[in-house]
Amino acid sequence: CTDNFEEINTNPNAPEAVSANLLTSTVTSEITRKLTYEGYSDGNTITQLMAKNNFPGFGQFDWGDQGMWNFFYGILPEISDILEISRAEETKNSTYEGIALTMRALCFANLTDLYGNVPYSEALAGKAEGIFTPVYDDQELIYNGVLQDLADADAALAKGMNITGVTGDVIYDGNPEQWRKLANSLRLRYLLRISKQRDVSAEMQAVLSAGNFIQTNADNAVLIYSGTSNTDSWPESTGRIGGFDEKSLCTTALGYFSTFNDPRLDVWFDRNSDGKWEGIPIGLNQDSARAYDDANSPSRLDVNLFYYSATDAQAYIIKNSEVQFILAEAAERGIIAGDAATYYNAGIRASLSYWGVADTDIDTYLAQPEVAYDGSLELLLTQKTIALWNVDYQGWFNYRRTGLPALKPGPNTLNGSLYPVRFLYPSSEQTLNTNNYKAAVDAMGGDNINVKGWWETGNRY
Amino acid sequence: QDRVVKGTVTDANDVPLPGATIRVKNTTIGTVTDIEGNFAITIPENEQNIIEITFIGFKSQAIDVTGKFNVNIKLQEDTQWLDEVVVTALGIKRETKKLAYAVQEVSGEELSEAKETNVVNSLSGKMAGVQVTGGNSGVGSSSQIIIRGENSLNPSPNANSPLFVVDGIIINNNINSVGNEGNMAVDFGNGAMDINPDDVETMTVLKGPNATALYGSRGANGVVLITTKSGKGTKGIGVSINHSSTFETLLTLPKYQNEYGQGSNGQFAFNDGGQNRSVTGGINDHVDESWGPALNGQLIPQHDSPTTSGFRAGDVNLRPRNADGSFADEIIATPFIAHPDNIEDFFKTGYTISNNVALTGANKDGNFRVSFTDLNSESIVPNSNFKRRTYALNGAYNLTDRLKVSASMNYINSNSDNRPVNSYGTENIMYLWVWFGRHIDMNSLRNYWQPGLENVQQFNYNYNYHDNPYFNVYENTNAFNRDRVITNMRLDMNLAQGLDLMIRTGLDYSNELDKRKRAYSTQRFPNGQYREDYTFAQEQNTDFLLAYTKNLNEDLDFGISVGANNRVTKNRYQRISANSLSIPGIYNFGNAAQPLTTSDYDSEFRVNSAYAFGNIAYKNYLFLDLTARNDWSSTLPENNNSYFYPSAGLSAILSDMFEMSQVISFAKFRAGYAVVGNDTNPYNLVATYGFGDTFNGFSRVYSPSELKNSNLKPEKTNSIELGADVRFFGNRLGIDLAVYQSVTKNQIIALPVSNTSGYSSRVINAGEIQNRGLEITLNATPIRTENFQWNSTVNFTTSRGTVKELTDGLDFYTIKSNYLTVGAKVGGRIGDLYGTGFQKVEDASSPHYGEWIIDPDSGLPIVDNTLRKLGNYTPDFMVGFQNSFQYRNFNFSFLFDWRQGGEFHSRTVAIGGTTGMLDFTVPGRETGIVAAGVIANADGSYKENTKSVAASNYYSHVYKRSNEESSMFSATYVKLRELKLGYNLPPKWFKNVSFNAATLSIVGRNLALWTENNHVDPETISFSGGTVIPGVEDMALPSTRSFGVNLNLEF
């Protein structure tokens, strides 16, 4: 009478195996949405483009793990599964393989940039190898892996295999050439990131020469929300207006915008009730932020673009403007051949154009003496920081590497005179992976927000 | 012709009994004995010649006086304790004295007089070893019952629930609380709540595996056996009518301050309530905290102030505007004053009205009972209610001398138009109250639409975070309807002398549909929402039992039984949600403005069981019980799906075995050992992918986050129990003692693992939990005279669960968390609560030991995010103290429930502290506050902090969400749980009706509470992620006291 037990205990609700496209839709949508929404709230705060008038703890550097660890390690299993499926004999597909490798590199680069040493070589090996307490690897080893994954992705995507049927890809709809451009753009981003430690000239130059990277806004790795449901809508548009209302223009950014006479100010922000542009400093405590808010009524974000519309604001991984600024800095530092000013102008043009500024206005903008490139890295990185609006934490990573633009903690900072450089490990790691957590903390010199990683401590510049 | 019968009533020793009642059978004619025990009674001509003699503490007698004129009657003392028969496992009736384990019973009368809508609550305080915690959404909420502590590490709200068995049929007691899809959790009640107290004859609690071994896997947490009323014993036709009305009022309410209104930095002026700050923002009118101006009557524009355009200021969608969007009218400022009772005024008096009528009948061939009950309850929360109708039918018929058939059918319909929402967020009105303004006149919010925008735009005092509370309860409803059928059919056959066969099949079927409606302009659903959740549960059990009993000789009896059970359980859950609606106010999926989101889950499993048990009785004073059971569960891997467990119990009536002092009237000792196994949930062996919502038209799946395990083994619990039952002074004083230890091993748990492994949890066998406890029940009859009797019962419970082992390399396991973490640490106790707190001076030799360490820059204590143990939610001990008094036709009783020890976290206090709503946030508002603590000097010494900070800064920091320590409170409380005054109406009042009984009672429940904090009730559970979190009060509805009347008529 137990004969049919196995059949009874077979789950009728969910499959034991799936195809790559179903996982690709999850991976491409979740990662792109999350990175942009993080950039919108916290990434913009730490680069002082935006500051909060309520619950301002993040700007005071009252930090924990900030949830990014759980996000990336939570989505990496899907990426591993796509990789496994795309490499299995019967479902082999080099395009899915390239997509998975690109996304894996993106996730691990972000993880190590945000946390320092993280599990890499033994990560995601629970099922295959029974490893539930993976060791933490140092940043250099992880970066080697990230760059290898991107090189492998480039090779896989170069095969140009088409995906038939539903692709599941919300960014490029499975187009291997486009994905190849994304992979190589990320290579440029990460090569520049480690350029303080390592001579990356040859590799960067090789990518540049091959030319398979994002060079127009049409190639941007962008997700356009369809707005058919809360899931595929711009996330802020589905929240309470009070949550939107907590975000204001930061005084630091107002400084940039005023200096540059920047049209993006009017795109991203609304004037206050007095019809003026007002900023609020970051790093005020709740009381001071409230008091400042009472007294000055800082400008908040553009309510039509970032709250009332479910589709106007887009999500993205990397855009042409960032790539141009990477090349500008690399040229300026002599890592690659070429004219920094040309790349700089192209970066600004790409950014303004993306935000809907007319070409003639861009010409006017670029002609201003405050904007015209003069070989100043500070100017270059300030423009890059503005262009990185909503792009996860890339602006902060640039600041950590270059110290530019020179960001200062706010009045009620909880971190002394230091500008923090990493998030804390999640407390779950202390209990679930205790020994490796401790070893990592020892290796890094502590689990606090001021411990620098490998790439920012190089001395090549 | 009428005639007079005289007589005397004495006890067994010929001592006269004054005050005994004599009554002519089936009439209202009666009398009582005088001081010498004499009586005289007139028997009418055409009445039977039978008189009935009753006296408290003695067994009633009926005597045929045909042809007699003078009778001497000796009443026997009522020794029912000794001959008491209780229902035990599998519904077998046994004499209490023979049992080798603790069993306690509550009678139906007790349940139906001081009626609890949720029958589980009636057990509160009445029994040693039983802990009942009522839910926090008023009448109709779930109650959690834990018998002898928690044994399981499983976070499910049902993992530690006892098994509920109704007339031999296992019923589902699952707590059904569902959240997500943007909605917060609503508690739709626990399964056993559907049982109607009016139909309950007895509720018997079997504690621990020794008593429940025959229920196998499912009895490990104890069993509550419910026997429903039947027609048995009725002479002819019986009718009973019961009516009860109870009223509910607030027992607790947080203490709010009344000095300062909404705003910040002492500033506030309403313009648009935060709807569009860039254009029409007022002064801090988007701020939802209470650090605003003093409530001293100064003139300030408010949401209910008039405007020059004739609208209310809060009618922000209607007021005339200029071209730039600013308002074209002016608000006419009104006095800014406190409304101290605004929140209390929101609540109303709740009531519960229950009517029951039952008909019974019996003759030599059989019996029947039909019963109908209608219960209607209105909550203290406006527009929230609970309704239940129960149709019960049971009957038995003797087909032949040896063949009896019986059947019962219960149909229960429970429903509500709206159930309150639990936990932290805008859908819960209790959330609003910790963010509310003290200046708000509650009446100003009653007209909750902006005129002309009905169904489209609410009117509120705030538009950026909150919903109008009346809008919330009248428009955003959480309705449910549950149809449930519990039925069984049974055949009893006497095959031969001493050989009986029972065959039975029973079904518990329930179908529930929950409907959530959210109107346009709701904060969480600006374009409305409509959602349906459908839950289907069915459990069918079919069993047989073949029993043989024999008297071997004068000294030796034995019985042996064999049986088998087949269980089939099926569940289905389906959720459909339209998260945006095209047309306001129409709640239909056709009106969805977005693709519907759905989720559904089917499950099925089977368990086959075979069991045998035997008992041997020697000289009726020594009893040995043995049981054995084997289960085969479909949920376990093929090679591990069969598991066996035995039990043995011995009881000895020492008072019958040995000569004992006259003082001791009865002495029994008992000992038992039992093993029970347990299976797991279906589909726990192989991991599967999960479906996500579509995105831009693409279907999505998620990789499994839990690694399943195809090598699972069944769980095992070993238990030993020792007990004694000793009674003194002719049973006037009795003590029942039980000590036990149970050890649960190989628990099947979803062990959290580092998510860097690719999984967030994996299913394993792990853990060892030891539970030890002591239960004492003391019964006494301090006074017993002819007219007066006082009975007193004290029960005492202490139990302690200890985590002996988790698994290799793991010393901490998060069982569940809701702000606080309920964690198991090796060597720690079950119920330990972990959370964060401030850094403190840890050097015990420092004069500042234990003081806060203050950050010199901010002047505020430094938060330490490392998890630390903040308390334990289990009590050190619990005491129930029940007294009943009987005087002639009056009876009076009260029950105190005392729970000592344990801690809980109050989110109401934590948030109400940060927002400046609660009374303790007033001091220092004008002067600033210097935090009591020390500043660390460079040399490791400390100096006193002297920096003054703004009160708002201080309180919002000290009570901040990441500092759970500040809102921990002692969970010790004493409650006056039950008070009852009953009066048996004298039969002479009803000359023309022949009542068998007529009782009027005045009852009260939860009338008083004594506890440390004055904001919330420490008896609390919160709901989060579909599970119950003990030890956390999370925006709970206030507790209520109830009082009312109960009328019971039998004729």
Describe the overall structure.
The complex is a heterodimer of chains A (461) and B (1051). Chain A is mainly alpha-helical. The radius of gyration of chain A is 22 Å and the shape is globular. In chain A, strands 1-5 form a two-stranded antiparallel sheet. Chain A has a two-stranded antiparallel ribbon with strand order 2-3. A two-stranded antiparallel sheet of chain A has the order 4-6. Chain A has 20 helices and six strands. Helices cover 6% and strands 51% of the residues of chain B. Chain B has a 22-stranded antiparallel barrel. A five-stranded mixed beta sheet of chain B has the order 10-17-18-13-14. The two termini of chain B are 26 Å apart. The chains are: A mainly alpha (461), B mainly beta (1051).
Bulk shape of chain B: globular
> SSE string of chain A, helix = H, strand = E?
HHEHHEHEHHHEHEHHHHEHHHHHHH
Query: How would you classify the helix and strand content of chain A by structural class?
Result: mainly alpha
Distance between the termini of chain A: 76 Å
Question: Got a strand count of chain A?
Answer: 6
- Counted beta strands of chain B: 60
CATH superfamily of the domain at 158-248 and 350-427 and 476-831 and 873-902 and 974-1050 in chain B: TonB-dependent receptor, beta-barrel domain
